Amino acid sequence: MTGGDLVLVGDIHLDAPDARTEAFLRFLDRMSSTASTVVLAGDLFSLWIGLPDMEQEHHRAVVAKLVELRARGVRTHYLEGNRDYRISRAHVGTAFDSAPGQGLALEHGGRRVFAIHGDLANVEDRQYRTWRRLSRSAPVWGLFRALPRARRRRWAEGLEVRMRDTNLDYKKTFPEDQVRAYGEGYLSRGHDAVVLGHFHVEKDLGRIFVLPEWSASRRHLRVSAGGEIGFVDSPE
Q1: Has residue 109 got a pLDDT over 90?
Q2: Contact at 8 Å (CB) between 209 and 221?
Q3: Is the full-model pTM beyond 0.90?
Q4: Residues 6+ apart with CB under 8 A from 104
Q5: Is 77:37 a contact under the CB 8 Å cutoff?
Q6: Please, what is the angle between helix 19-34 and helix 57-71, to 10°?
Q7: Domain count of the fold of the chain
Q8: DSSP sequence for 88-157
Q9: Rounded to whole angstroms, how far apart are CA atoms 144 and 71?
C-alpha cells in the first residue's frame, strides 16, 4: 500500500490456535488496508523453529495470513528473536520480504528507522548471551537436525519451558541504562529512531522506542507516511 503506515509489533508469543491467535490474525487483516510495511520484532510464537515438521497449526495459520498480506502488497519483515531459529531460510520470499538477525534499516515518512529484536541490549546478562551463541551454532543445529522428529519435538517443548523459567533476575526490572546505551550506538550511525522489542514493556526514551508485548497490550508503534511516530492501540 503506497503511502501507508510503517507498523512495528513487539513480542506476541502465540502458543496455540486460540483466541489470541485469532485476534492477531484479525489485526493483520486490518493492517492490509492501512499499512505499507509491517515489521514483526521477533518472538511471534513461544518457540518457532523454521522446519516444516516442527511447525504446528497456529504457526501455519499465521504464516498463511502473512503470505496473504504480502499478496495484497504489504511489505513484511521479521526480526529473529531469542525464541526464533532459522526463520529466514524457511519463510523469506513467502511470508516475509526479509528476516534479518542483525536488525533492519528502513526509511519511512522521511525517517530513518533502525529496528532490532533487542535481546543483546543487556550486556550484563552473560548467561543468556552464552546460551544464545551456543544454541545457534552450526554443531548444535546439525545435532538437532539429526534427531528423529519425535525427539526433536520433545527437545523443543523442553527448551520452551527452560527459556521461560531461567534468568528470572534479569526479567524483573527494565535495564534502561543498557537499553539507552545500545540504542545510542545505532543513533550515532545516522538513524533517526531505534526500535527494540524483547523487554515486553512500552517505553518512549526519546528517539529510542521499546515495543510492548502485543498479546497483553494490543499496542504497536506506528510511523505515519508523514513521519509521525508513536505508540497506538492496535485495531482488531
Answers
A1: yes
A2: yes
A3: yes
A4: 39, 77, 79, 98, 114, 115, 116
A5: yes
A6: 10
A7: 1
A8: HHHHBTTTBSB--SS-EEEEETTEEEEEE--TTS-TT-HHHHHHHHHHTSHHHHHHHHHS-HHHHHHHHH
A9: 33
Does 170 have pLDDT greater than 80? no
pLDDT tens digit string along 26-79? 999 999 999 999 999 999 999 999 988 889 999 999 999 999 999 999 999 999
- What value does the mean pLDDT of the chain take? 91
Altogether, the residues listed in the chain come to a count of 236
Question: What are the b/e assignments for 182-213, b being 16+ CB within 10 Å?
Answer: bbeebbeeebbbbbbbbbbebbeeebbbbbbb
Structural domain for 200, as ranges? 5-233
How far is 163 from 193, CA to CA, in rounded Å?
30
CATH number for the domain spanning 40: value is 3.60.21.10
What pLDDT is recorded for position 124?
Answer: 86
Q: Output the pLDDT for position 155.
A: 77
